[in-house]
Design a protein that fits this description.
monooxygenase, six-stranded mixed β-sheet, heme, 3 domains, two-stranded antiparallel ribbon, alpha/beta, transmembrane helix, Cytochrome p450, 453 residues, heme binding, Cyt_P450_sf
Length: 453
Amino acid sequence: MSLSTFFTYTTLAGPLILAALFFLVPVYQDLKYRFQVWCRKSNAQAPGLPPTIYSIPFGIPFFIDVLRYSKKQTLMPFIQKIWHSKQTATIRLQTIGEFDILTSDPENIKAILAVDFKDYNFGHRHGAFEPLLGDGIFTLEGAGWKHSRAMLRPQFTRQMIAQLDSIERHVLQLISVIQASSGENVDLQALFFKLTIDTATEFLFGESVQTLSGGNPKITYARNFDLAFNSAQAFLARRFRLNIFYKLADTQQFREWCTTCKSFTDSYVQLALERADQKQENGEKEKEKEKERERERESYVFLDELVKETRDPQVLRDQALNILLAGRDSTASLLSWIFYNLAIYPAVFTKLRAEILTHFGTTPSTLSFESLKQCKYLRYVIDETLRLYPIVPANARAAVRDTYLPRGGLGPDSESSDPDARYFGTRPVFIPKGTILGYSVYVLHRDPHFWGG
């Protein structure tokens, strides 16, 4: 055989081998799982097979759909359709390079997050999120997570977070921005994200970034942070969806966004460390210290309290960024969905406004955790908004050992006349070590089995 013929065969063989692997690897994965389930059929509680949805080849069509619907901002309705296509609460889905288990069954979600919590970890989350969030409470697990939780939990008592005067000041700034629009259309969601970053930075870091009023000149990247933080988070979501291939999503622009966010937070960390050093150098008398502590309780600063636990700038930055993410996005998202729904349902808006005026009047002086509890219709509006539009609509864990979900597997007894037998399954689901489990409260909160048609 001539050298040219050899190279011709080699050139042809490469793509053919790759194409074969794209089909053979998923076949092997599928048959291996089915064999593992079959080997356990003699157990006291023999597992069953959840319905399987294939995405041939190699899970690529599903991955393309995820990207397409994410771009349209309709990913959750698309995921909901997947569940409805099988008329079951737990499914096995071929994703890019593997088969995952997806569930909206509350019993299975309880097992993942509570009953069998030690059987799961965050999977690839740390690697995917590390460029922005570092080693914080949302990325660490095991001992690192426990240490973060122990360090952060004391900072969030009811007394510490009731700083309504600060919130009122920023809300008034928001209203002035809306009034300055002179009747033009206003993007409330964008303004809510500015509002919550302003309130969160004041509560967490002691000084607002003031995005609603042009940016705080004391803070590095104060004007650029909002865009960088939003863009970096969107990129993190893309990395996370790539699963084990998350490192493929890494660009210079992404790294620059992360650097901007870290430099922004470093400015606050430096200010907090300087405040702590100043207090130590002053050497106040005990009486003056007690007065200062009383003032601090009235004007609580999360980062100042965290400095008492650690003076490591990187630890402070990573934890601060993690908490800032939660403090900004959750509240801004909830506010956006509430106002969206109030615009659609004017009767609800009218009733809610009347009840708020009845309970609180036009000033926040009577607001407190206790008085808010008495405003039941406000609670109903918030709860129903969170049901339909949960802040974290879906999440995932990875099995660290062979384990089981309590139900979702199908067997001969699943074909009974009881509709719940087919929908929820009558057998446990075997979860091999390394399997990714996705769970969706978005799908659960819209499930006709619980909420009606």
